[in-house]
Structure formats: C-alpha cells, structure tokens
Amino acid sequence: MIRIQTNDVDIGALIAAAKEPGTGAVVVFDGVVRDDGITEMELEAYADVAVAEMEKIAQEAASQFRLQHVDIVHRIGRLRVGENILIIVVSAGHRPEAYAGSRYIIEEIKKSVPIWKKELTKDGGRWVVGEHGHGTGTLTGRAGSRTSPEK
Amino acid sequence: MTVKVRFFARFRELLGTDIPAEPEEGATLLSLVRDLARKRKEGYDAIFDEHGNFHEFVIVMRNGKRVEHGDAAAVRITDGDEIAVFPPVAGG
Fold first, then answer.
1. By CB count within 10 A, which of A8, A60, A75, B81 is most buried?
2. ipTM of the complex
3. Domain region containing A67
4. Residue A71 falls inside a structural domain
5. Helices vs strands, H then E, count in chain B
6. What tens digit of pLDDT does each residue of B54-74 get?
7. A-chain residues within 8 Å CB-CB of B90?
8. Has residue A149 been placed in a domain?
9. Entry pTM
10. Closest to A65 in 3D by CA, of A32, A30, A31, A106
11. Residue A76: closest CA among chain B residues belongs to which residue?
C-alpha cells in the first residue's frame, strides 16, 4: 500500500499484512511530529506525483533488497506533536535486508518526493528546509522522469 | 488553449495554486510562469532571479515530469498541460 492520506494508519494491521511465508523480519519506520517548540505541523503534497515517486522507490527497494512487502503511508494536513507523519513497513527474509530496505526508502523519500512541511508556531509558521536542496533525487534521476523541449 | 499552473508550499502562499491560464500559441513554460508570477512581486522574486531566470533551487514540472531550467524557454505549452512549480521537497 502506497498512499498519501490525512488519516492515521493502523500500524499493527500493516505489520500483520507484511508477514508472508518466508518472512524473518519486519521493520517499521514511524516518523512523528517532533516538539521543536511548535504548536502543529502542516503538510502538503503534489499528491499524484508524490504517490508515483513513492511507488518507484518501493519497487526499487523491493528489487535491490529482496523485500517481500512494502507499505508507505505519508500523511498530509495538520498534525499535532507526537502524531505519525510517515509510516514505512517492510518485510524480508532476514533483518539486514529489512533494515537496509527501510533506510533506503526513507532517504529516497526525503530526496525526491514532492511533499512539504510547515512548522506552525505561536508567532506564525516556518517552512522546513529540505535536506537535499535542489531536487537531487529522483525528480531528476529516474529514467523517463524528464521532458525535453519540443522540436 | 487552457492549462493549469500549480504552485506549492511557499510559492502557493504567495501566488495561489491550481491557476487556470490561457496562454497564447507559442507560449513557453518560462514565459507562462513568469507572466503568472508577475502578479505579485514577492512571489516573482521567490521564483526568479534578477535576470528573470528560475532560481537554482526551484523545481519545475510539466505533466508530472521534471523540466530542466535550461529547457524551460524552449518547452512550448500545449492545451491541457499541467505545470507545477515548487521549492525543494521536505517530506518524510
């Protein structure tokens, strides 16, 4: 399941669904709203492109790390401190692949998936600066992701 | 010809989003975005430098595919296009 949604997700159900014959490890990444002196966090996405990018990342991770199952759920809208932002659930035959695959997915999401976060404070708000500056990830790098000028 | 321009994050706050536009035949991606951004100086300055080029960090897409800045003046807009302009991503 690769989704962008406002609602929270039942992580326990995702873990149960990730267990398949041959599964030896399930790794869950749960990114939450940190209390950095903020009141809430507001997230927005270019949803169609974001889901397509996350699907590509999931496919690449599954192939590269022999994952059996991948779920990525990224929430948007207003979230309070402590709420889930991003849940990644992966399963694999062994823990090295599961850990590595999970880490790969979160790092690629941060590079390339068009989602933005605004930290809301008592004094207003501030946009979170992306860690990767000028779109260094798959927005530029994946095959077929560019367009050329018409001749 | 009718197209849609979508700004995101800070650019959306400054310029709005899902903006319908009717560019003239021959309009390019660069000219279209410049014309829309000119409605508010703060928005224009957030996206373009003093020479009218996209700031280095700005990401531009046409129909969900990345367009390099160097190509934006040559990419001709066609009917039904969806153009997206946004700052560096910060999800996760």
1. A75
2. 0.94
3. 2-128
4. yes
5. 3, 5
6. 999 999 999 999 999 999 999
7. 110, 115-117, 127-131
8. no
9. 0.89
10. A106
11. B91
